[in-house]
From TrEMBL:
CheC-like protein domain: residues covered: 11-47, 107-144
InterPro entries linked: CheC (IPR007597), CheC-like_sf (IPR028976), CheZ_family_phosphatases (IPR050992)
Keyword terms: Chemotaxis, Hydrolase
PANTHER family: PROTEIN PHOSPHATASE CHEZ (PTHR43693)
Full protein name: Chemotaxis protein CheC
Length: 204
């Protein structure tokens, strides 16, 4: 059976990108209110990668990264995780909270979890608005580890439902400061077809 993510065509990916941009807009508004400063966000690309490529996107298996993991439950389900390289996480915290230091305190880890929570919630809200589906996110969990170890932990937790992931590349802007991040979605069986059925888009 062909992996459903590998069956997505350019039009279907463009639909997901549009939903991602709407979600990013909601997240930017929420973060701007929370931090009392203007935050812009953009989704330059939505694409499908193999699980082996996730390591490369994160900078290699030994690259230390920050990962925020959540479960997507309801009519459409799957696993999601936001991944930032260590320097990107530090830059994001500097932009949002004025962070200046080495290592992350409990407060900084909570701030990163809240960012992941806001981003996931905003994407899910956009999905819900478009699909009219009942979807919600679990409480987030954070991990700071090498990319390979983080990915293995995620896969052990969610199970091997597929060999691919949907990647929503996300850019955070505050003034001239840019932070790149990646938001990964690993759908449960049947969820990809359910998304497009709910959107009224053919998915053969």
């Amino acid at each position: 059976m062909v992996d459903p993510l590998l069956r997505l065509n350019d039009f279907q990916l463009s639909v997901l990108k549009e939903i991602g941009n709407i979600g990013a807009g909601h997240a930017a508004t929420s973060l701007s209110v929370l931090m009392q400063r203007e935050i812009d966000m953009n989704v330059p690309r939505v694409h499908v990668v193999s699980l082996q490529e996730i390591d490369e996107i994160m900078g290699g298996a030994e690259q230390v990264v920050v990962g925020v993991f959540l479960r997507m439950e309801g009519d459409i389900s799957g696993s999601m995780f936001l991944v930032l390289k260590l320097e990107s996480a530090e830059m994001l915290l500097k932009v949002l909270t004025g962070f200046e230091g080495n290592g992350f305190t409990e407060f900084e880890q909570s701030a990163l979890m809240e960012i992941g929570n806001i981003l996931a919630g905003s994407y899910l809200s956009a999905f819900s608005d478009f699909t009219k589906a009942n979807i919600h996110a679990s409480v987030p969990a954070i991990s700071i580890d090498m990319a390979g170890a983080l990915l293995n932990a995620v896969l052990m937790h969610v199970g091997m439902y597929s060999d691919t992931a949907l990647v929503i590349d996300t850019e955070f802007w505050q003034g001239n400061e840019l932070v790149d991040s990646h938001f990964f979605f690993l759908p449960d069986p049947g969820s990809v077809a359910a998304i497009f059925k709910a959107l009224g888009v053919d998915f053969a």
